[in-house]
């Protein structure tokens, strides 16, 4: 598929085409006055500026140079170099969180009101031959966009929400309400009366703003349509400045500059102007030709100076924006979702609209029985991508993955030398204007269980985990729910509330686990910490944010003049990376501006969270064991395996009720603990309801059937956004050596190992040969090695008039147990000497922390919490297979800038998930961000302790016993399938014997 682009390959700095020579001059070394000497720097460790540059004062706006970002440049180069040396563990590691943080920081200097979009969908341009464009190829995917926003009414710099007081005041508000394209926006601001061709980003409803990108970053499969769409949008606005793009692989480290422009001749009505793209043709890394390597500090400095030099270019674009020009210019129908009917169909639109109307009438008339749901509107063009906005908003439409491709075009780029283009983290791409709020949405909506069972004779199929987690929690009623999923795995949610009953404390281990949790998460601000952080080397660009951090006094009751040995060691570790922390804070704050203009993106702030994890979780120095977008095996349904569970279920529910009653009684009744008491009371009511539900099910006598139905629909795997692991070298090989059969070895690895590789994506239509050749050029990026029930009377039953407040149970951000203050920390976990084993692809990965990200939207919190429950239960079940129990695994549930730390453990064949009254952190606040990252070194030590436990248990592991009944849901599903096959074969054999007997008679 071609967009009619013409590509110019440049071999010498003097050969750039005339329309882009002015902007390309920024690549010249003469535009880098602060460049280091001509010494060749081969690695991050050997590269340096000509002199140290540390300042506590930020430069004046517009005067930033690469020196103001030198610490971030060095840490980015070092981090990416370290990733390149690590094993893939099933899939190449994403490099986006590290290099995008650098680009994000640099792009923030382009203008005081610049907006940075990450993982942003954009409207694809129309193909040169419309019939060759797939009907589902509407949206592309940009890794990063630096853009100007045009509003219907003037906005000033004071409107921005980048100060701590502003984000604190709006903490309880969903960012989605600020969406400029939301139908529910306040009528006080007038809509922009502009054609859709003036918009490049998808949206629906009335528009209050338009986004015009200045710097565009995408991978090789999206960069060509992205640049073309930007050029056509600028044509609509009458902007003649060239487009500047960077092509960066999601798993590589090379950035290639690409410059674009349109033919100067005014396009004829109905014809697209020709887009021209210019880029270096040489495979050599040469910053003067726009080919940069993030892992080489000298090259990264050149890239930084180039991006900083775009400030004038950015201001020129802003100054050229004119709404009057949009009305005066010839219309240009460039969007793939809105082709020009008259020119495309040669005046036949009337006939097609008539056919469309007839089909709507026929479909509506034939679906009266199901009138509760709106019929899907057929396309008026039948064979093209034109669909109504109602249809595009429907979840029935397929979502488009980042790397789908189609045929066509004719561009080539330098040959690949160090890596191939592979699927990265860009799973956020979606069909045009879908605005699907739930990530990883399935291709079609799943009907309710009762509908599926009544309309299909086939056995129920497993839910995708994202859909399962979004189901309404109906408790322990017969329908599928997260509560049933947990109960059938003997897993129970608890609060961070110590119990006074010694018997209950010993049985559950809850008091000991709360102590471990507090050791992991509490923090003491001290004068020593302030001194260390004040003297640490940091970029001048974030000096104001550092001053804000160091001027905070924390809680006066938690001050300490000295810090213990482990804290001192951790603070020194953090201080060496303080710039990365402060840049993450600044980036998280700037996301507020994007959310208020265009709504919160699904990937909102995930790169900031990922960057914090990558920079501060290092069990062994330099070894960043953070895996992104990985599939997890889920735990099997224990109740479905145990024929006696139905008779024991009432006793199990009673145990949980008693635990919740005890926790409710142990909450002190003070004004400071009102939040904890509300949550404990809601948990008590829920546990009492569970007890009644199970008794009712037992009296109905259908427990076995209900559990079997649940088991058939349980999700098998789920995709975890990030997982912190400890690799155990050689453990997997030691286990496999005890199995001689290759097929059995493969089965064990697939069904037993918790962390699997990223889920393979189906490749669809690509954006043509142009993108293919660009992929080959960016290829020199390094491999950086995702029924009616009985009413049971009970004195403990919750009254019908008193509904359970499930928001208290599913939202960990309602209350902060420490009142948003720094908390006293006394760490007792010993730090033992650790050996750095050589990692390999066969390492067994022990889970330490699992993360689930959602955008800032209260409606998504319960879904994220449910997903985290499935992750944690599966993780502790996996550890228990090695005899590791009474050891916690931690969770990080993210809602935009907020992140809550949860925890799970297994004791006495019960799993407990501590998710109420837990600590949470806002990464827009530098002090809270410091508190959060201080947890990560402690988690690393905890993970190394898990590895030592495994090494002790390894000699006693019976592989044959593990194989007899593997812990995973995948294994259970395979066992059920084999059992049904055996039953079917027996039935056939029995029929044959009966028929044979009849014939003999």
Note down, in words, how this protein is organized.
This protein has 1001 residues and is of the alpha+beta class. Strands 1, 2, 3, 4, 5, 6, 7 and 8 form an 8-stranded mixed sheet that branches. Strands 9, 10, 11, 12, 13, 14, 15 and 16 form an 8-stranded mixed sheet that branches. Residues 32-55, 154-188, 340-349, 358-457, 556-560, 761-766, 778-802 and 820-841 have low confidence and may be disordered.
- The total of helices stands at 33
Envelope shape: globular
How confident is the prediction overall: mean pLDDT? 75
Strand content: 5-15%
Largest sheet: 8 strands, mixed
Number of strands: 16
Distance between the termini: 70 Å
Helical fraction equals 25-40%
Based on CA atoms alone, the radius of gyration comes out at: 30 Å
Q: Low-confidence parts lasting 5 or more residues at pLDDT below 50?
A: 32-55, 154-188, 340-349, 358-457, 556-560, 761-766, 778-802, 820-841
Strand-pairing-aware structural class: alpha+beta
């Amino acid at each position: 598929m071609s967009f009619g682009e013409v590509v110019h390959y440049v071999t010498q700095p003097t050969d750039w085409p005339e329309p882009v020579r002015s902007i390309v001059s920024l690549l010249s070394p003469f535009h880098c006055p602060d460049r280091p000497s001509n010494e060749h720097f081969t690695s991050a460790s050997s590269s340096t500026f000509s002199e140290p540059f540390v300042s506590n004062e930020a430069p004046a706006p517009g005067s930033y140079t690469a020196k103001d970002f030198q610490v971030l440049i060095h840490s980015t180069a070092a981090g990416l170099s370290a990733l390149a040396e690590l094993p893939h563990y099933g899939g190449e590691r994403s490099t986006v969180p590290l290099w995008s943080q650098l680009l994000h920081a640099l792009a923030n200097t382009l203008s005081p009101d610049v907006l940075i979009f990450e993982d942003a969908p954009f409207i694809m341009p129309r193909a040169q031959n419309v019939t060759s464009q797939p009907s589902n190829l509407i949206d592309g995917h940009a890794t990063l966009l630096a853009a100007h926003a045009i509003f219907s009414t003037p906005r000033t710099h004071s409107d921005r929400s980048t100060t701590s007081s502003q984000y604190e005041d709006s903490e309880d508000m969903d960012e989605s309400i600020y969406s400029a394209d939301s139908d529910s926006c306040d009528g006080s601001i007038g809509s922009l009366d502009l054609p859709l061709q003036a918009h490049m980003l998808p949206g629906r409803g009335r528009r209050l703003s338009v986004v015009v990108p200045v710097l565009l970053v995408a991978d090789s499969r999206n960069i060509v349509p992205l640049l073309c769409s930007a050029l056509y949008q600028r044509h609509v606005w009458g902007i003649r400045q060239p487009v500047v793009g960077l092509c960066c692989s999601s798993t590589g480290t090379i950035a290639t500059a690409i410059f674009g422009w349109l033919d100067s001749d005014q396009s004829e009505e109905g014809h697209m102007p020709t887009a021209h793209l210019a880029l270096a043709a040489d495979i050599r890394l040469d910053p003067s030709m726009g080919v940069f390597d993030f892992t080489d500090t000298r090259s990264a400095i050149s890239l930084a100076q180039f991006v900083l030099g775009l400030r004038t270019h950015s201001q020129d674009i802003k100054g050229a924006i004119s709404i009057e020009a949009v009305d005066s210019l010839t219309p240009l129908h460039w969007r793939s979702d809105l082709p020009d009917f008259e020119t495309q169909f040669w005046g036949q639109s009337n006939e097609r609209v008539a056919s469309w109307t007839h089909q709507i009438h026929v479909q509506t008339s034939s679906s009266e029985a199901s009138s509760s749901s709106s019929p899907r509107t057929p396309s008026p063009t039948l064979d093209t991508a034109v669909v109504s906005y109602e249809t595009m908003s429907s979840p029935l439409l397929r979502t488009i993955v980042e790397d789908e491709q189609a045929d066509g075009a004719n561009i080539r780029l330098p040959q690949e030398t160090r890596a191939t283009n592979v699927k990265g983290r860009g799973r956020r791409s979606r069909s045009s204007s879908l605005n699907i709020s739930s990530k990883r949405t399935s291709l079609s909506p799943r009907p309710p269980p009762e509908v599926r069972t009544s309309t299909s004779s086939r056995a129920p199929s497993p839910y995708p985990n994202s859909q399962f987690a979004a189901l309404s929690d109906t408790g322990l009623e017969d329908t599928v729910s997260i509560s049933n999923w947990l109960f059938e795995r003997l897993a129970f949610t608890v609060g961070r509330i110590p119990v006074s009953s010694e018997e209950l404390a010993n049985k559950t281990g809850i008091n000991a686990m709360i102590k471990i949790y507090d050791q992991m998460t509490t923090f003491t601000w001290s004068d020593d910490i302030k001194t260390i952080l004040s003297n640490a080397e940091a970029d001048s660009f974030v000096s104001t944010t550092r001053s804000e951090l160091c001027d905070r006094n924390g809680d006066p009751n938690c001050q300490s003049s000295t810090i213990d040995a482990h804290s001192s060691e951790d603070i020194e570790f953090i201080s060496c990376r303080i710039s990365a922390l402060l840049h993450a804070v600044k980036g998280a704050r700037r996301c507020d501006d994007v959310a208020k203009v265009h709504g919160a993106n699904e990937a909102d702030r995930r790169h900031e969270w990922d960057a914090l994890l990558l920079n501060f979780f290092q069990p062994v120095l330099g070894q960043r064991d953070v895996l992104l977008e990985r599939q997890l095996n889920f735990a099997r349904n224990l109740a479905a395996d145990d024929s006696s569970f139905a008779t024991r279920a009432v006793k199990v529910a009673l145990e949980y009720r008693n635990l919740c009653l005890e926790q409710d009684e142990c909450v002190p009744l003070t004004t400071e603990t009102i939040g904890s008491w509300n949550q404990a009371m809601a948990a008590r009511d829920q546990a009492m309801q569970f007890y009644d539900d199970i008794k009712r099910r037992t009296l109905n006598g259908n427990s076995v059937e209900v559990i079997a139905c649940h088991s058939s629909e349980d999700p098998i795997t789920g995709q975890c956004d990030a997982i912190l692991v400890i690799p155990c070298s050689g453990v997997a090989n030691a286990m496999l050596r005890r199995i001689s059969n290759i097929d059995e070895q493969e089965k064990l690895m697939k069904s037993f190992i918790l962390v699997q590789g990223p889920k393979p994506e189906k490749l669809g239509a690509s954006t043509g040969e142009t993108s293919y050749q660009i992929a080959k050029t960016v290829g020199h990026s390094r491999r950086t090695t995702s029924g009616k029930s009985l009413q049971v009377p009970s004195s403990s039953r919750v009254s019908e008039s008193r509904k359970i407040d499930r928001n208290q149970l599913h939202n960990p951000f309602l209350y902060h147990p420490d009142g948003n203050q720094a908390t006293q920390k006394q760490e007792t976990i010993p730090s033992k000497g650790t050996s750095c084993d050589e990692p390999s692809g066969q390492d067994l990965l022990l889970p330490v922390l699992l993360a689930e990200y959602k955008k800032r939207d209260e409606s998504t919190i319960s879904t994220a919490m449910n997903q985290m429950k499935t992750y944690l239960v599966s993780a502790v079940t996996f550890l228990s297979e090695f005899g590791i129990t009474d050891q916690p695994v931690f969770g990080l549930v993210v809602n935009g800038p907020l992140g809550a730390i949860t925890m799970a453990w297994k004791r006495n064949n019960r799993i407990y998930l501590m998710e109420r009254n837990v600590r949470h952190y806002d990464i827009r606040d530098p002090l809270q961000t410091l508190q959060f990252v201080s947890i990560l070194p402690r988690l690393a030590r905890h993970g190394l302790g898990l590895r030592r436990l495994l090494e002790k248990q390894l000699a006693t592991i019976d592989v044959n016993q593990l194989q007899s009944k593997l812990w995973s849901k995948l294994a259970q599903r395979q066992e059920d399938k084999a059992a049904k096959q055996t039953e079917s074969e027996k039935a056939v054999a029995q029929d044959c014997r009966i028929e044979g007997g009849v014939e003999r008679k």
